[in-house]
Structures are given as C-alpha cells and as structure tokens.
Amino acid sequence: MSFQEGSVGVEDLVLLEPLEEGSLLKNLKLRYENKEIYTYIGNVVISVNPYQQLPIYGPEFIAKYRDYTFYELKPHIYALANVAYQSLRDRDRDQCILITGESGAGKTEASKLVMSYVAAVCGRGEQVNSVKEQLLQSNPVLEAFGNAKTIRNDNSSRFGKYMDIEFDFKGSPLGGVITNYLLEKSRVVKQLKGERNFHIFYQLLAGADAQLLKALKLKQGTSGYTYLNRDVSRVDGMDDASNFRAVQSAMTVIGFSKDEIQQVLEVTSLVLKLGNIELKDEFQANGIPASGICDRKDIQEIGEMVGLNSEELERALCSRTRETAKEKVVTVLNVIQAQYARDALAKNIYSRLFDWIVNRINESIKVGTGEKKKVMGVLDIYGFEILEDNSFEQFVINYCNEKLQQVFIELTLKEEQEEYKREGIPWTKVDYFDNGIICNLIEHNQRGILAMLDEECLRPGVVSDSTFLAKLNQLFSKHSHYESKVTQNAQHHYDHSMGLSCFRICHYAGKVTYNVNSFIDKNNDLLFRDLSQVMWKAQQPLLRSLFPEGNPKESSLKRPPTAGAQFKSSVAVLMKNLYSKNPNYIRCIKPNEQKQRNQFSSELVAVQARYLGLLENVRVRRAGYAYRQGYKAFLGRYRLLSRSTWPSWNGGDREGVEKVLESLIVSSEELAFGKTKIFIRSPKTLFYLEEQRRLRLQQLATLIQKTYRGWRCRTHYQLMRKSQILISAWFRGNKQKKHYGKIKASTLRIQAFVRGWKARKNYRKYFRSGAALTLANFIYRSMAQKFLLYLKNNLPSTKVLDTSWPAAPYRCFKTANQELQQLFHQWKCKRFRDQLSPRQVQVLREKLCASELFKGRKASYPQSVPIPFRGDYIGLQGNPKLQKLKGREEGPVLVAETVKKVNRGNGKTSARILLLTTGHVILTDTKKSQAQTVIGLESVAGVSVTSFQDGLFSLHLSEMSSVGSKGDILLVSDHVVELLAKMYQAVLDATQRQLSVTVTEKFSVRFKDSSVAVKVIQGPQGGENNKLICKKKGSHSLEVTVP
C-alpha cells in the first residue's frame, strides 16, 4: 500500500481504526468533501457518485495508471481495471468485474469507465479498433432501450447486464457476449409519479423527422400516448433528439442494417400504439360482460404498419381460447381482463424486442469458435433494494444480491487462503456470517420460496397470493430468517409494521418486508396464446420472429417456465460463470437522494453500506493479517528507519526487511515473514511504521536542508570572492586604459596644433592670403554656369500641359532649380494666354466657372467638359421674332435654348424658350413671340439642382420682386451645366454678388402663399423611356423621377 503524501483520510478501509460504522462513514464523507470519490477495501473499489464531472479521467490518467501497480497511486477505478486487464493478459487468468449499488449510485458510468480504459490500453489496428468501437457503441443502444428516468436517477438501468469481453493471446479484443437479466417490463405500461418510460420512446418522438413519424403512424410530442407519463416528458441536461440520432448511428456501427433499424422502430411504435387502444364495456346476448374497442383507428394503423389483420388482433384482445387435448373453448374477456391482455402483450413485445436487440448485438460482436480466447466479464446489476412497498421485482433482485454476496465472501476467503498457502503462513479459520442459509431459503429446489411460488402457480384449483403466503407460513414457521404476521402471532410478538399480506426475510444487509400481492401474476407472466398466434401472423419479419410459439406447427400445450424459475436458472449460470473467473469488485454508493453535488447524507450512505456489506468486507480482509507487501517494495519504503540499511543496503530484500524491523519496537506476534511478502497483523503497527517514517523523513529533510544551506553559503561566498577579484582587476585595468587614452588624445591634439601652425606659417610665405576664397568663388560660378548651360540645352517643350523638368546636378542647386521650373511654367502659361482670342478667353472662363460649381457634385458634369458652350441652341440669329424679345438696350444673348417648365400644381411639363441676357432671364411660349416672364437677374436669389445626370433645376426668386411674388420656377434644361455657369457669371457681373447654387435631391419651391417640397429620385437604369416623370404627392409634395 502506498501512502500518498497529503492524502485525505484513509485510502484503504482495511487500515481503518477503529473499525466501526461511524468511523467508516466519517472517512467516506471526509474524502467525498475533498473530491476523493474512490476508496479501497483491499482490492475492492468503493465509488461515491459525485454528480459532477471531475478532472480525473481521460487519456492522461489512463496513461498514468497503466504504468503503476494497484497501490502506488490514489484509489481509482482505472487502477482496478488495469489490474484486471494485466492479470488477464500476462497471467492468462479470466477476469470478472462486479459492479453493484442501488439506482443512481453510478453503476452504468463505472462500467463505461472500465470499458473505455480497457479499450484505450489494449492493442491497435483496423480490426481491433472496429471491435472496440462496436463494444463501446453497444452502450448507447442498450441505454436507450433499457434505461429510464426514475425518482432516484435520471438514467437508471432497468435491467441487469453482464458482458463478456473476449481477447486474443496478445490482449487485443476479439468481440464479446452480452447477457441481460430481468428487464423491468412493467415500466412499459405504468410509471410512478415523477418517472418516465424507457428513453427510446421519448427519443423517437423528439428526434424522428416528419417522414419517419408518418411511416410509423406517430405524431410528435408525448401528450397523445397513454403509456407515457405526461407530467415528465423531458429530463434536464438530456437532449432526446440528439440522443436518438446517436442511437441510430450506434446501431449502424454495430452492424444493424437499415431494414433492421426500421423494423425495430416499427415494433417500438407498435408498443406505443397498443397503449392508445381504449376498451369499453359490452354485453353478450346472454348478459355475460364482454369488451370491445372504442376507436378502431389505432388498431387499423397497427395492422397497416406491421401487416396484421386488425379484426384478428381485436378478437385476440377481447377473447381467449382455452385448448385442451380434446377441445377448444373460446371465452370473452371483460374490460379489466382485456386491459390486462393488452398490457401483457405490450410488455411481452417490448421485453422480447430488447432480448432480440441484445442477441443481434451479440451476433455482431461474437468471436469465432475456433479461436483461443481470454475473457473479462463486466457485471452491471441492480443493488440491494429496500423500498416502502417491496414486491416480486425487489424479491428476485435481493435474491441475486444474496448470491453475489455469497460469491464475494467465498472467493475473497479462497483468495486469502491461497495467498497464505503460497507464502507458507498458517491459515486460521475465519468466523463470518454465511448467508447460504438465506440463499437456501429462497432457491431450494423442493422447499425454497421460489419453488413454493412455482408450485402454487401450477397447481389446479383456486390460487391466489393469500394461499401462497399461507403455504410459506406453514413451511417456514420456525425458520430463523423468515417472519410474517402469523409466525409473529405464534411467538406472541406483535409488530404493527408487518401487514397481513406480507412476509419478511432477514437478508445479510438487513430485514426486508415483501408484499405478496401480484406475486402469482408476475411469476406467471402469462401471454394468451391467441395474442402470440396473431403476432406470429404479422407480415413484418422482426415482429413475427419474436413470437415463435405462435406458429401452429410448433405450438405446445406445455406451460412455459415461470419468471422466477427463469431468473433462478439465469442466476445459477451467472454464478457458475463468476466462480470460473478471478473477481474484481466496484461498490457504488449514492451520497444523497437529491442528485446534488457536494451533499453527503450519512444516514443514506449508512443504509447502503449495510446493503453492500462494507464492514463485513473489511472484517474478512482483516481476518488474518491486515496488510501485506513484497519485500522489495517494503524495504524501499522503510529502509531509512535502520542505520544498517540506510543509506545503502547490499544484501537480500528479506534480510534487509528483518534488519529494519529489528531496529524498531515491533512485537513478533504482529509480523509474519512469507516467501515473497511481509505480513502485518494490525493496522496500528502499520501506522506506527508510517509515523516513524514521517519523523525520520523530517530528520533527513532537516539534515538535507542544513547540508544544502551550508553548501549554498560556501558556494555563494567563493563565487562572490572570485567576482570581487575579477571586478577589481577589471576596474584597475579600465582606469589605467582611460588614463592612457586621455594622455594619448592630449598628445595628438598638441601635435596637430603644432603641425597646423607650421603649415600656416609656410603657406603665408608662398601664397596670397585670399587665394582660397577666390578659388571657391570661381569653382561655384563654373558649376552654376555649367548647370545653366545644361538647362538651356535640355529645356522641355513649351506645351502648357508638359510638366517635365531636368533634375539638378548638384544638391546646392535644388532650390534654384525649383524656382526656375516655376518661372518657366508661368511663362508658358502667359505665352499661351497671349495667343488666345477674347472669345476663347471667355469660353475658358465659363468652363472654369462650371468646374468650380459642378466638378464632383453633378453626375452630368464630366460629359459637358469636352463639348464647347454654344449658347444658341434655337437659331436665334435667323429668327427676328425672338430677337425682339431681348429688347434693344439689352446686351448680347448668353444662352438661348428650349426648356421645359414644370407645373407646380399638377407636375405636368410644357415647352418654353429661355433667353439669358446680361440683365434678364426671359421665358416665352414656343408658339408665341411675346415674352411671358421676364426676370431681372437681381431677382434671382438662388438655384437648386440635383446631383444626377438630369437637367432639372429650380430658380428661387426674391419675394420682394413682382415676378417673385408668384413663386419659384421649376425648369428642365438639356444644357443645365452651361446655363447655370453663364447665369452665375452674369449675376456676378450685373449685381456684384455670387449666385447661390445648391446641389441637392430635396428642396422646396414657393408656390403663391405656400411651398411645395420637391423630392428627386433616380429611376431604374435601362427603363422603357428615359423621361423625367413628375408625380404630385398630396397638396404640398412633388416627386420627380429622373432617368
């Protein structure tokens, strides 16, 4: 046993002191509160359900536990799985892992962890991985069809499961065989308040698509099905829809075909539909009560889905055929009997479907008969149960647990005895409670309770649960482990908790009172032959195969075996299987009823500890010597306690252990030396060794610390001394280097001054004093002359748009070169302007004005740039009538063109001729020669124009003018850029003010005493006609759609 530093409580209860129920519970609670959920009893693992995910699983921990022996690390389920797998692989010993505990204790999760560990540590390869995947994927399928939400557990296994995983000689999985025990099929037709039916029903209704539901004659939602508890349709943290998809995927991985999956779902649907068949009272002509079906819709849908004759099914549900060797008698069933027949059929169909699924999985994962194989069995079965009302199910479950307890005690004692024999230590008989008397009370072939129950079911005459109880009272009246009201009265012992229809058995885990009501019916588990025959006539292959006894050729008048007899024989086969293997145990405990994390109910755990016989387990383990360990491991741990073996020992391991124990005060009665192991009788002795080791470790730690501190100080001092010497040497050397450098620099400076003085003295003797300046000026002028001559010969063209210019040859001429470039450009521009005529100058000014007003603001501006401004677009010179409109005193006409005037009242347009002179804007009708509207430029307050390619604009007039009193004018021009640019220049020349030109899609125009809001939108590109469309929107809004 490895004692982990800083471990919480006692990791192995074999070493618990004192050995009492209170100290055991206190130790489990202490470890649970510190998230240590695993504890050992020797090689038995106790697992307390944490109800949360703990970071103690996964590949990292699997790799950790596969490299160590059982006791070298903290208790863990991986350690037990590793011991079992290594013993199977290396010692060629078949193994079995027994997982027990009550519902909600975590048995299913424990079995998954064992299987995931074995799958992770065994071999690799495509075939091996396929087998492992099939074994692992069997879990979600069996959970869907065999698990349900109960009051105690959201994912409770409602069946017992034993899986044999078969390996080859290398330890790689070949396949397996699954055996199921006692499915709780009564749950199909009835559930307690707060519980659900089996998961598959809810998964099917939540996860199936509309097409599949239609094929199965189902509707989404659980409210429409009698067999489903409507109060609890969902479970927190469980996604039924995604689980259904996972089940379908798992079935495919295992090897189910699409047809098989469809048939399984059809049979599942059939069970739901059976529950919806509502029966009613009817009477025959002679007044005998009979039964009938209220609504034939469900029974017809069942017939259509699986190929059944709905009339035959109705007849089988409402009547019964009794057949003897000579005659057949058909009797009608009343409503209660028909409901019993319907529910019995539903339970049998589901139970047989579950058995078929298990057998189908076995077909996929079975191993060929010719291969030699090793076997590891994993048993996940119900724990001992004591409920408020215990019936037939609890009776057989507790019988199974009695047998498992018997196996545990016998195999544990046998293992202890074999180990003592191997080590050459005398074996003393261990006193323990032998529960064989209880097993015999239940399973004896002639005088057992199960035998009496079968006898009562088979005998002719009036049979009831009361006659069965009376027989038990008569037979076991003096049995020490049997009680009932009758036996208590005979002994003048009165117990108000004992009912008249009850009997009590003193199990190893405590007394359990059973109510005999329904014992006969549940043991008979009868299905009327008529129903079997109707099911066999189904066209669907799977449903037909579930009822082979319905075949008339194979029909037998022999009564089928009872449920108790079947379970007894299954348990006998299981026991035989377990006795042939080396057992490993996982005891699962539920810490609280609320399924909450960090809550530990000592009362609840105490009851489970008694059920599981934990104290009994510890006492058996401590019957002889409580602790044993190999000499090498023991010496490695405790050799530091003796001066003879510490710090080094060169002798044998056993001699070293003897030396260690001789140096300690340990009684010889507490020790026994085996061939390979040392045995210690009392945990106190082991704790004494551990305490001595702890004190010795403190002494050694102090010695190590003292030695280390001395070494560290000496090393630090020597390092500091070396550093000081090195720093001093470097400092002195650096100081001398700096001093030498200063002297050298001073000498060089003095020499330089002297040489300079001499050179200047000689220079004055032979040259003029201003020669250097003269030479420098000459050189600079030569460079400037060269630069200017180069520039003269390489001048660019005189085109205004040519911006090229030669680069300066020297950096000193960079600024001058830029100035010359600017002067040359200005000269080119002046030369170009001088060549222009006044008309060309005026055109460029107008273009410049248009650019300033509309560049980047009006979409039609880029198209107007290359087109010259003509001004006259109506042939003004050839039309004397129009020339009269401008008047004699007016200047030249700047723009003459045809525009469209928009009526502000209705949005319609009409053609007008517009003349722009230097002083007025004149509008006239195209058919008349008289001016209709003359607007002085001083009356034009502003212009609004859009940013689109249209020619719409608004002349905003001053309110003070005579023309402006009528309101603003809305016009459309094909040359709007030219018109507005010239109007802007004309207003500036005439009034010395800038005309306000606004580019916007929303503006307002005055109309008499009110205003009209104009909104301009752009129509679709490439429309039928690119025309401007005006629509009146109410009395004060105008919407204009432009192309």
UniProtKB/TrEMBL annotation:
Function: Involved in directing the movement of organelles along actin filaments.
Pfam families per record: IQ, Myosin_head, Myosin_TH1
InterPro entries, sorted: IQ_motif_EF-hand-BS, Kinesin_motor_dom_sf, Myosin_head_motor_dom-like, Myosin_TH1, MYSc_Myo1, P-loop_NTPase
Organism: Jaculus jaculus (Lesser Egyptian jerboa)
Every Myosin motor domain range: 8-694
Name the record gives this protein: Unconventional myosin-Ia
Residues at which ATP binds: 101-108
Entry similarity comment: Belongs to the TRAFAC class myosin-kinesin ATPase superfamily. Myosin family.
PROSITE patterns associated with the record: IQ (PS50096), MYOSIN_MOTOR (PS51456), TH1 (PS51757)
Matching Gene3D superfamilies: 1.10.10.820, 1.20.5.190, 1.20.58.530, 6.20.240.20, Kinesin motor domain, Myosin VI head, motor domain, U50 subdomain
Classification of source organism: Eukaryota, Metazoa, Chordata, Craniata, Vertebrata
Keywords: Actin-binding, ATP-binding, Calmodulin-binding, Motor protein, Myosin, Nucleotide-binding, Phosphoprotein, Repeat
SUPFAM superfamilies: P-loop containing nucleoside triphosphate hydrolases
One Gene Ontology term from the biological process aspect of the record: vesicle localization
Superkingdom, natural source: Eukaryota
Single annotated GO MF: ATP binding
Span of domain TH1: 858-1042
GO cellular component: apical plasma membrane; basolateral plasma membrane; brush border; cortical actin cytoskeleton; filamentous actin; lateral plasma membrane; microvillus; myosin complex
Region named Actin-binding: 571-593
